[in-house]
């Protein structure tokens, strides 16, 4: 059985599709990393049974309702709760004490996918007694994942792993107190989402919409080319309070960007403080 | 036709760490291409394994970061929980998409990506392991005229992976661990 994706879409064809989607629908993926895009496009051909570039293109052009599915599939939405526990531990120990000095805390979670990260942050804020004066703005390009995030319902099969992650992140409570199980799913407590605002926001084309003390954007920039990464760093810089914090994914860095000198890494995890 | 190797990929699962620890010390320190290692392991911090491997080689063991530029004379260990993809011959991307065959990193994914970018200048070695990750990837390497090398199953702690590879892919070389370093050193010309 061949589990890898076949090569249905050629490099030139990929460029044509990106141009179509940009000119017809205003979604600009032209500065996304090609290696991942190529895999995703070939994957969508397999899943949705397109046997050629022409078929996929026809569908995209003539069925505008297909666009949302297209975006959902060519972006990667994989996420977990307390992914990289040491990151959350660093937030608890090194960042939250600083955030605590603000009367009001605004957090932007950019590329929040199906929301697992948002619920993790909400739990952390609760345990640090900061929740009541915090607001979490959770955004994503993709309305479908936000819909799921709003529900806060996740498979029960994941809870063992999440609970282990939670403990490794320094969590001392019983993780299961945060949700109610129902058959094979669990629903996280509604008070965890009281302070969450979900909204679509496209990092490529939308502008800054508030000032934050903490911006978290993990495993989104890996899908962007360098130039687009720089543009997004500028957007974050414009949206971050002086001395605010910027947190990235485990393998992402602001180090090689033009803004490198404006930030100081505060822990070995990927968390920076804006210093000018 | 003489192929010039521009990238050397090593994939392995259960039983492959001991092979690496035997091979690494014997590698010349002027290897003319980057070496990429894709290992299945529990997703604990990669710093531990990086530090371990560093003790066994004169080559530099480099941390992989997204969009980093590859250097020759460097060994790169793909970090846990990411797939590694090639943007071009010098730049890699990390990708946190779905696991493939329960694996992330997936050997198949990186082998396939390397095959597409490097074509005949890719060389891939598949070691011991209990699953078939890497076998399809080797197929891609072969289809693109790259070099396919497999650990001799008799020497593998777990022979399933190399056996599958040999039975499904036209393998160029089947090597014992003690032959591997010499083989890699000789590719550097
Ligand atoms: C791999 S997920 C990361 C989820 C989570 N942050 C984590 O690290 O587990 C990447 C998310 O980025 C979103 N994304 C991709 N392009 C985007 C863009 N231009 N603007 C906003 N979000 C985007 C995708 O829809 C997806 O939900």
UniProtKB/TrEMBL annotation, chain B:
Gene3D superfamilies: Methylesterase CheB, C-terminal domain. This is protein-glutamate methylesterase. Residues 1-181 form the CheB-type methylesterase domain. The active site is at residues 13, 40, 133. Keywords: Chemotaxis, Hydrolase. It catalyses: [protein]-L-glutamate 5-O-methyl ester + H2O = L-glutamyl-[protein] + methanol + H(+). It comes from the Bacteria. Its EC number is 3.1.1.61. InterPro entries: CheB_C (IPR035909), Sig_transdc_resp-reg_Me-estase (IPR000673). Coiled coil: none annotated. SUPFAM superfamilies: Methylesterase CheB, C-terminal domain.
């Amino acid at each position: 059985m061949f589990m890898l994706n076949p090569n249905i879409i050629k490099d030139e064809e990929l460029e044509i599709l990106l141009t179509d989607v940009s000119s017809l629908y205003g979604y600009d993926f032209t500065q996304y990393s090609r290696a991942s895009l190529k895999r995703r496009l070939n994957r969508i051909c397999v899943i949705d049974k397109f046997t050629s570039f022409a078929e996929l293109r026809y569908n995209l052009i003539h069925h505008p309702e297909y666009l949302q599915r297209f975006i959902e599939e060519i972006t990667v939405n994989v996420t977990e709760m307390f992914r990289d526990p040491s990151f959350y531990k660093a937030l608890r120990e090194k960042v939250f004490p600083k955030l605590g000095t603000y009367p009001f805390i605004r957090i932007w979670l950019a590329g929040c996918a199906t929301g697992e990260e948002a619920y993790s942050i909400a739990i952390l804020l609760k345990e640090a007694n900061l929740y009541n004066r915090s607001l979490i703005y959770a955004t994503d390009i993709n309305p479908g994942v936000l819909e799921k995030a709003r529900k806060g319902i996740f498979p029960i099969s994941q809870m063992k792993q999440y609970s282990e992650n939670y403990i490794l992140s320094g969590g001392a409570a019983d993780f299961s107190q945060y949700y109610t199980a129902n058959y094979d799913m669990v629903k996280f407590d509604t008070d965890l989402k009281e302070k969450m605002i979900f909204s679509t926001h496209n990092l490529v084309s939308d502008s800054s919409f508030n000032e934050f003390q903490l911006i978290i954007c993990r495993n989104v920039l890996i899908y962007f080319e360098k130039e687009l990464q720089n543009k997004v760093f500028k957007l974050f810089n414009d949206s971050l309070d002086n001395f605010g914090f910027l947190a990235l994914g485990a393998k992402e860095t602001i180090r090689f960007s033009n803004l490198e000198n404006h930030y100081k890494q505060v822990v070995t995890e990927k968390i920076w403080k804006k210093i000018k | 036709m003489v192929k010039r190797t521009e990238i050397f990929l090593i994939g392995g699962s259960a039983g492959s760490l001991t092979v690496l620890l035997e091979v690494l010390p014997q590698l010349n320190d002027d290897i003319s291409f980057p070496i990429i290692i894709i290992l299945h392991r529990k997703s604990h911090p990669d710093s531990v394994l990086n530090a371990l491997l560093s003790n066994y080689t004169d080559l530099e063991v480099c941390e992989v970061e997204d969009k980093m530029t590859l250097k020759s004379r460097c060994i790169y260990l793909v970090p846990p929980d990411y797939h590694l993809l090639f943007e071009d011959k010098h730049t890699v991307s990390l990708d946190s998409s779905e696991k493939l065959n329960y694996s992330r990193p997936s050997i198949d994914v990186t082998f396939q990506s390397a095959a597409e970018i490097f074509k005949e200048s890719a060389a891939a070695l598949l070691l011991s392991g209990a699953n078939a990750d890497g076998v399809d990837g080797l197929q891609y390497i072969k289809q693109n005229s790259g070099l396919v090398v497999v650990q001799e199953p008799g020497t593998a702690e777990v022979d399933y992976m190399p056996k599958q590879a040999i039975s499904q892919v036209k393998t160029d070389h089947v090597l014992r661990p003690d032959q591997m370093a010499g083989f890699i050193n000789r590719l550097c010309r």
